[in-house]
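To whoever picks this up:

The parser on our side crashed when reading a file containing two proteins. I've narrowed it down to the boundary between the first structure block and the second sequence. Both blocks are reproduced below exactly, byte for byte. First block:
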Amino acid sequence: MRASVGDHLVQHGRVVGQHDQVSEVVEVMGREGNPPYRVRFPDGHEAVMSPGPDCQVRHREKEQRL
């Protein structure tokens, strides 16, 4: 998994009825785009995440084309 600043990290809900959590990557702390990432959630709080298999990166360039 590789991400850049400005990409969105989507953590999919693990149980029925749980919504996906979307956060913005504000800092890449690993080498060459690898985790961990500092992310900012819509409510403004930040966290350091090392995403697991229930996450995906939505790259900024692809989102702008949609």
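<<boundary where parser fails>>
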Amino acid sequence: MSTPLTCRAPATGTVQIDDDKVRVTRWDFDPGAETGWHRHGMSYVVTPITDGTLLLELPGGQTATAELKAGVSYARAFGVEHNVVNAGTAPLSFVEVELKAYAG
């Protein structure tokens, strides 16, 4: 007997700023919600609004987890490819700032 196909609910991305320098998006995840597979075309900074645990699905079937702490930011370079899932039992939110242009 095969396992039925299940789909995760999508996370909600709300663009707050999108100009020639940055794109700022607030991401809200219910428990189990996901972004869907994507590749970052820009370097970015994430600032968690809530504590939580992310499941990161990576190319090649690998996975990793990340513990988020409200107010503790982290940065990643462009080219990152993944699906981001709220692995916790509570809603999770963060703000992502994509860097379109650097000073200078």
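After patching the parser it read the second block fine. The chain has one domain: 12-99. The CA atoms of residues 49 and 70 lie 5 Å apart.
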